Amino acid sequence: MQELKTFNEKRAEIYWWLSSLFAKELTEEDLEQYHSQTIRSFLTGLGENEELSGPIEKLIDSLNRLQDREDAQLELSADFCDLFLKSEKESALPYASIYLCKSGLLNEQPAKDMEKVMAEHGIAVDSKLNEPADHIAIELDFLGNLVIRSNELEQEAHFNDALLEQETFIREHILTWVPQFVKQAQSKDEFGFYAAVALVTEAFLRLDSRYLLGN
After folding, report:
1. pTM of the entire structure?
2. Domain that holds residue 131
3. d(C-alpha 88, C-alpha 191), whole Å
């Protein structure tokens, strides 16, 4: 079981990494790290998985093009704002409510459902984010917490139950709307960095779901 727990740590790190990309704009320091050998090796490693190779290739391509983009950090911050902070028609808003509710309004049932799930696990929405609980960054961060908390379990049956709970959360709370969000990001992100991040997110969620079911 220790091998699975070590793998869980890697899974949690990936979810937290993806969450951070949707939570706030990248700084100059962040961009420097993304051009470092450490991050490039990390991405290359992920891309060795057949199901992730295409999305990771798009992400690496956008990072390569960023090196030639004038005022890259400012332009990428503008992309973030245009994609995630404007109106529904103009943007690819990263909230479950937008895609699951006919009205397309925020703070509807998906946000309340997510708050309930988080409360059941004693986890509060990070006040620094100042976002409803159905924001993709919050859902991915919570998933990372679910993963790492399962490593505290010592009995194999409880550990396996926790893995199934993670799969249920992915299927019932994230994959119900993320594919629509990804399509919207593809259509709105002209440069392609965040569109690639969205693709990687969906691909990893689907891969992880199959892993958790033993497929």
Report:
1. 0.94
2. 2-212
3. 19
